[in-house]
Design goal:
The protein contains five helices and twelve strands. By secondary structure, it is α+β, with helices and mostly antiparallel strands. The strands form three sheets. Strands 2-1-5-3-4 form a five-stranded mixed β-sheet. It has a five-stranded antiparallel β-sheet with strand order 11-8-7-6-12. Strands 9-10 form a two-stranded antiparallel ribbon. Belongs to the TBCB family.
Length: about 240
């Protein structure tokens, strides 16, 4: 089992900004907050740290003596730092403090300098190359799988959190407003989400709840005859 995890870090000052860091699983939450203080500008003594998977909050890192691995045991999660000082209000106007790009580059206590010194995120050339290579391989695999999804072929669909479903391929291509390639399936049973239409646009036609669109990676093409369901069978 790996001794480190790669996580993204965001903060309540700017939810849109996140960067990737590599952290030891045996790092205590107290020590983690000290690192996050440097990275985010928050206060280790008052900050609250939450762990997210996508947009879903999995919980708060509220035990300072616990190790990071207790809360985060896989790559790709996000640590969100909530700085309690951010909610304070002041009536008196405060002069805005700004640094030029050159002044910021010369500071030794900046987030950028910390990332450079520790070869983290985009400053880790080897890691960035590995990420790009992984993206390229994923794109090639997606394209290969999409080419196998020929119209009117039988298939089985496997999506995490859903039962395996059999059906017939009815569409292969992009969906309006979404990125990537999608495979349109007419399922043998009403286990889908639509009738072949998405947001009013028709991609294929099938009865309501018999249609669905999934990633090519979720589709296995093969000899999958419709399963027989005997409704008269005594249970």
């Amino acid at each position: 089992m790996a001794d480190f995890v790669k996580v993204n870090v965001s903060n309540s000052h700017n939810d849109a900004v996140a960067f990737e860091v590599k952290l030891a699983k045996d790092l205590t939450i107290d020590a983690l907050k000290s690192k996050l203080e440097i990275l985010t500008g928050g206060s280790a003594g008052t900050m609250k740290v939450e762990v997210f998977k996508g947009d879903k909050c999995l919980g708060s890192l509220d035990n300072n003596d616990a190790q990071l691995g207790y809360y985060v045991n896989c790559d790709g999660l996000r640590l969100h730092v909530i700085d309690t000082f951010a909610s304070f209000c002041f009536d008196a106007p405060v002069e805005k403090f700004e640094l030029s790009k050159d002044q910021y580059d010369q500071r030794s206590d900046s987030v950028r300098n910390y990332l450079k010194q520790n070869r983290l995120g985009k400053y880790n050339e080897e890691e960035m190359q590995q990420i790009e290579e992984k993206k390229r391989q994923q794109a090639e695999e997606l394209q290969r799988q999409a080419e196998l999804c020929v119209l009117d072929k039988r298939c089985e669909v496997t999506v995490q959190g859903n039962p395996r479903r059999r059906g017939t391929i009815k569409y292969n291509g992009p969906l309006e407003g979404k990125n990537g390639i999608f495979i349109g399936i007419q399922y043998d049973e009403p286990l889908g989400k639509n009738n072949g239409s998405v947001n009013g646009k028709v991609y294929f036609v099938c009865p309501p709840n018999y249609g669905g669109f999934v990633s090519p990676l979720s589709v296995t093409v093969g000899d999958f005859p419709p399963e027989d369901f005997n409704l008269d069978e005594e249970l």
